[in-house]
Amino acid sequence: MSVGFVGLGNMGQGMADNLLEKGADLTVYNRSVSKVEAMIERGAKGASSLAEMTLAVDVVLVCLANVQTSRNALLGDDGVMANAKPGQVIVDHGTVDIATSRACADAAEAKGAHFLDAPISGGPGGANDGTLTIMVGGTEEAFEAAHEYLIKMGANVKLMGPTGAGTAMKLINQLLVGVHTIAAAEAFALANSAGVDIQVAADLLGVSWGGSTMVERSAPITAARAFPGSGAPLRLIHKDLSIIKQLAIDEGLSLQLTKMSQEMYDTMMQQGKNELDIAAILELIEERSE
Q1: I need a labelling partner for 78 at 20 to 30 A (CA). Which of 47, 164, 200, 258 fits?
Q2: Within 13 Å of residue 163, how many CA atoms lie on the same side as its CB?
Q3: Number of neighbouring beta carbons within 10 Å of residue 177
Q4: What is the 3-state secondary structure (H, E, C) of 116-162?
Q5: 269 backbone dihedrals φ, ψ, rounded to 5°
Q6: Residues 60/88, Cβ–Cβ less than 8 Å
């Protein structure tokens, strides 16, 4: 079996590195040719187009930054689905809307191929370490076919249900990431105001009911105000909450904390702070507290 990987970005590079280092027969494609050339020097094969890569492999993994880029690569005129082969498994690791995942599944089925929506969580660190959580939607048959590659990239790989279930699970996760990041930032703003050391507070919260993954993650970043140069820039959670907001409208759900959180990230984006770490939402809380 051979595997192709599309998208050598913040997350994709670490994922592709793990595939190569763990013995996969790997072909890569990326719009930035220099990244492909670097992988070829390390032993991977390179493709000059999506069509070339898709036709060369048994399993195609795609990890791109936003919904439109993912749709272009997967559903475009000469993209992955247009060149899919019967029996092939195509996996989307991007965070997209459920409608996109279902459109990809329909397009794959029309070519006799299989599709898995398999978004990821764990950040660039998890991608580099091969410890990602991978949430998968699709058939058991397709999951089993792709499993040997998924476990090279992730420590927690789970089939959540049929098409769309992986995407839904990632959106649930991102809802909590977005809300919990703001809750942690509010707690840290209070700690600063009261003269409580943020890291000491976070350590105690870690053994108390108020602890969370986002408290643990954000504490050292916030204490050092190390917001620039992040692998988890604010623009990404803003994009995900926008998808969730639309899903809530479509499903008739009242997600008030999500709406309020998205409004705060909206404001940060309007201030040009889109590349700062998500924990930088503290700056908006401080601004509104003056």
Answers
A1: 164
A2: 18
A3: 22
A4: EECCEECHHHHHHHCCEEEEEECCHHHHHHHHHHHHHHEEEEEEEEC
A5: -65, -40
A6: yes
pTM: 0.89
Kindly name the residue from 170, 239, 245, 259 that is annotated as catalytic.
170
First and final CA of the chain: distance in angstroms? 60
Instruction: Tell me the residue type at 263.
Output: E
pLDDT at residue 268 in the model? 98
Nearest partner of 286 among 189, 216, 200, judged by Cα: 189
d(CA 155, CA 276): 28
Tokens 């998924």: give the residue.
150
The token duo for 57 is 């492999």
Helical ranges in the chain per DSSP H: 12-21, 33-41, 50-56, 67-75, 98-110, 123-129, 140-153, 165-194, 198-205, 213-224, 234-251, 256-270, 281-289
Residues near 144 by Cβ (< 8 Å), separated by ≥ 6? none
What would you report as the CA-atom Rg of the chain, rounded to the nearest whole angstrom?
20
Number of neighbouring beta carbons within 10 Å of residue 260? 11
Neighbour count for residue 285 (Cβ, 10 Å): 16
d(CA 221, CA 278): 10
Shortest CA distance to 247 belongs to which of 137, 170, 163?
Answer: 170
pLDDT value for 214: 97
Segment 140-181, tens digit of pLDDT: 999 999 999 999 999 999 999 999 999 999 999 999 999 999
Active site residue 22: no
Total residues belonging to the chain: 290
In the predicted model, residues of the chain with pLDDT beneath 50 are: none
Q: In this structure, are residues 64 and 6 in contact, taking their beta carbons and an 8 Å threshold? A: yes
For the record, the structure tokens of 44 come out as: 């991977």
For each of the domains in the chain, give its residue range(s) and CATH number, in order of start. 3-162 (3.40.50.720), 168-289 (1.10.1040.10)
